[in-house]
Amino acid sequence: MHGTRILDEADRLMTVCNSCRYCEGLCAVFPAMEMRRAFSDGDLNYLANLCHACGACYVDCQFSPPHEFNVNVPKTLAIARAESYAAYAWPRALSGTFARNGLVISIVAALSVAAFILGFVALNDRGVLFGVHAGAGAFYKLMPHNAMAVLFSAAFLYAILALVMSVRAFWRDIGDPIGGRADGGSLLQAIRDAGELRYLHGGGVGCYNEDDRPTDRRKLCHHLTFYGFLLCFAATSVATLYHYLLGREAPYPWWDLPVVLGTLGGIGLIAGPIGLFVAKMRRAPELLDEARYGMDVGFIAMLFLTGATGMALLILRETAAMGPLLALHLGVVFALFVTMPYGKFVHGIYRFAALVRYAQERRTEGT
Amino acid sequence: MGSKYDVLVIGGGNAALCAAIAARRGGASVLVLEGAPKFYRGGNTRHTRNMRCAHDAATEILTGPYTEEEFWKDLLVVTGGQTDEELARHMIRESKDILNWIVEQGVRWQPSLGGTLSLGRTNSFFLGGGRAMLNALYLTAERLGVEVAYDAEVIDLVIEDGMFLAARVKRPINGDTEIRATSLVAAAGGFEANIEWLKEHWGEAADNFLIRGTPYNRGSILKMLLGKGVQEVGDPTQCHAVAIDARAPKFDGGIITRHDSVVFGIVVNKHAQRFYDEGEDIWPKRYAIWGRLVAAQPDQIAYIIFDSTVVTSFMPTLFPPIAGQTIAELAGKLTLDPAALEKTISGFNAAVRPGTFDHTILDDCRTEGITPPKTHWARRIETPPYLAYPVRPGITFTYLGTRVNKEARMLMKGGRPSANMFAAGEIMAGNVLGKGYAAGIGMTIGSVFGRIAGREAAKHARN
Ligand SMILES: Cc1cc2nc3c(=O)[nH]c(=O)nc-3n(C[C@H](O)[C@H](O)[C@H](O)COP(=O)(O)OP(=O)(O)OC[C@H]3O[C@@H](n4cnc5c(N)ncnc54)[C@H](O)[C@@H]3O)c2cc1C
Ligand code: SF4
Ligand code: SF4
After folding, report:
1. Do the Cβ atoms of B42 and B451 come closer than 8 Å?
2. Residue A136: φ, ψ to 5°
């Protein structure tokens, strides 16, 4: 017996799969499973987070429903995965946030946006919010750079702290207690695997979404989103360096590095999430964890809004819309940061940790 | 969908799809009638994992050469010579090319695996298993314009003087219940799911058989063909049968109900008596005899008995072993006579001679002075908990079939080739497999004769 019903079901399926093993060439889950004969809660959470939800093992399984063995690995692991996020959340008191994630995100986002608008108004007079500002330092007419930096660093550092604490709990549960640290080779391997989404390829043909015809669409959209996010992050980092090292103030001209990175990233963060949303809408219901629909869509929406408000700001920054758009953008980004440890964002972190563990296991097995 | 096709294919498994694709590539219009609903399409092919093909050199999926001659020798051994040499050699020759042809149809192979099966040299493994392989074949067929109807059981064939005219389906296709075609490919599998038919040859014992594969292979097409003048081949009591877990479902339990622990323990019947040398030969060579052995025991039940020292030596199992701290407790749970089981085990233990255990070779761990002996891997059963799996005969597939020639064309009684009827797969496997079995050969028969049947059927239709 396991901690939850879904882990009981995951255990049942892994027992079926371990005596079958037909799927062992499809992804990392099955070889990792084969290294075990019995499955602890931690093992199951590990396997659940190794799964990339490509759907191949459902479409390829001779025992998927309506067969009486009722084997549905992608869905079971998706639910187990989502439940594991809450189980490892830090602080524990906030683990319930995952369950109400969609609602929480909307409230936090709305409040953050409102706070920025109010803050701008309070810092300045109304005219400034709707005024036209141009040239270097235009943004800081609305909010001093230092205030911005403090706010965002605080949100960001909190997110990092919460994530690190959660991943530690996860790692302890799935890793071996003694040699629990990862070696460089395994880390590199995991970075490569995560970077190319190696296991979202259904064993080579693409992933399954609305029917039994595999495509690479979800993978592409995920790449756009992920690399879009990284580019935006890089843009912000470069801008910060510009500010402190070179004393150059935003906004920067369109050809300057932070803007180029931000523009490319913004396009990714708009196109990627739209594609992921469409894929989710069309995904075959038997592969979908409906209960987590809100959380997934909420996260996709936040990423999309980050990209969209950022791009709108870039295009309209020399008009009277700049003030409200800046407030909106900063509000969205702020909300994204503080909700990160309690929503779908964590899937990437846990999956990465699981990939590191997998690389490590393979090395010790010598395969 | 018109109701007259160049080629009509009955069945929906590997043999049927290979035939349909080959016929379509040969320029024919093709309709596939699959009796099962979409999920169950592809009968027993869904449960397969690998295919045996000759090849002259190692590849990334196969560890070494497997020559035509070696394949032929292996076939000769398992069938004890009960095979049509000309057809068999023809199949083996064609199997070389099939390895690549299958890939051209979108099927993917798995790089050779470490696993528990020592087949990496002779057999190629489907990436994702048989259903993945079928899915690929269906996608290709669909893309080429082959029409497929599910839930389309054929209930009658109109055949005149060895010439196929039409098939009747249970569910109307395009408003018609009668489908006409210029040529026919019968690829509807064997009759293993037809317990009544099995009983004709096995008697009441067949009630205790478990059917490892699809419930849809009832042999109806085979029966119709044999009833309409097609020459039969093979022995109806010959089939591929293994010992599978007695707790498995009646049908479709597939691969995961098998046990490979026999060589690590002993096997007793319901009287707690051993009845065969469990250590006769390396397991993959011998696993296919245990279905028959158990079928010959009272009530068609037997128990594999071993102890806690070997539980990790074989593949993990779907059903957990039944455990007891003492032999008597275990016997109680198995409803065996405790005294009899204790006697069998102590007698066995006393007969075990010291040796060096190695289950990958025919080692020197054996018994002395008991009947039957255990000639290899014999070790005392003495470390509790004592464990057991109950097993029954699990029927994989049957060998009675339609006789064909090298063109996969059916032969009528008297030897005359049919004008337009071809057969492929399990429905004609008996031509090659008179008895016995070599892993992966079911897929070889289906792919090789499927491709030939499709090609020849298209050629006939377009003439
Ligand atoms: C558990 C298991 C594991 C196996 N593993 C392997 C393996 O690894 N390698 C290997 O080579 N072989 C394996 N085999 C054997 C292999 O499955 C068969 O040899 C092979 O499937 C035969 O292919 P086929 O196309 O002739 O028949 P099938 O794949 O059984 O297809 C027959 C089709 O005919 C349809 N049908 C039947 N009657 C009618 C009707 N009246 N009208 C319309 N349609 C009808 C059925 O629905 C079915 O789709 C395995 C078998 C089992 C049960
Ligand atoms: S998902 Fe199905 S086919 Fe794949 S390993 Fe599990 S039981 Fe076997
Ligand atoms: S990654 Fe794909 S193949 Fe692997 S377990 Fe998840 S859904 Fe199945």
Report:
1. no
2. -55, 140
Interchain contact A13–B (C-beta under 8 A): no
- Number of continuous H segments (helices) and E segments (strands) in chain B: 11, 18
* Closest-lying ligand 1 atom to the alpha carbon of residue B17: 25
pTM for the whole structure: 0.94
> Is ligand 2 within 6 A of the CB of residue B129?
yes
Short-list B287, B187, B196, B208, CA closest to B236: B196
Q: Give the pair of three-digit tokens for residue A266.
A: 């913004």
> At residue A63, what is the residue type?
F
Helices (H), B307-440: 327-334, 338-351
CB atoms within 10 A of CB B227: 10
Provide the residue type at B96 as one letter. K
**In Å, how far from its chain's centre is CA A112?**
20
Counting from 1 in the atom list of ligand 1, the atom nearest the Cα of B424 is 26
Q: Nearest-CA neighbor of B297 among B275, B278, B265, B330?
A: B275
Tell me: the pLDDT tens digits for B173-192? 888 999 999 999 999 999 99
Closest CA of chain B from A29, distance in Å? 13
Backbone dihedral angles phi then psi of residue A177, each to the nearest 5 degrees: -65, -25
Rounded CA gap, B294 and B153, in Å? 33
CA distance A134 to A360: 53
Ligand that comes closest to the CA of residue B129: 2
> Which residues share a beta bridge with B279?
none
Across the 367 residues of chain A, what is the mean pLDDT of every consecutive 10-residue run?
92 96 95 94 97 96 96 97 94 86 82 84 79 85 87 92 95 74 86 93 92 94 97 94 90 93 97 96 93 89 94 92 89 91 94 94 77
Contact at 8 Å (CB) between B26 and B459?
yes
Residue A291: how many other CB atoms lie within 10 Å: 12
How far, in Å, are A205, B50, B167, B272, B277 from residue B41 at the CA level? 21, 18, 19, 41, 39
Q: What is the DSSP string of A195-207?
A: HTTTTSSGGGT-B
Element (H, E) at A364: helix A346-365
Contacts (Cβ under 8 Å, ≥6 apart) of A154? none
Residue A289 DSSP label? -
Round to the nearest angstrom and report the end-to-end CA distance of chain B. Answer: 22
Q: How many CB pairs under 8 A join A and B?
A: 77
In angstroms, the CA B433 to CA B87 distance is 11
Stated as kind and residue range, the H or E segment containing A108 is helix A101-123
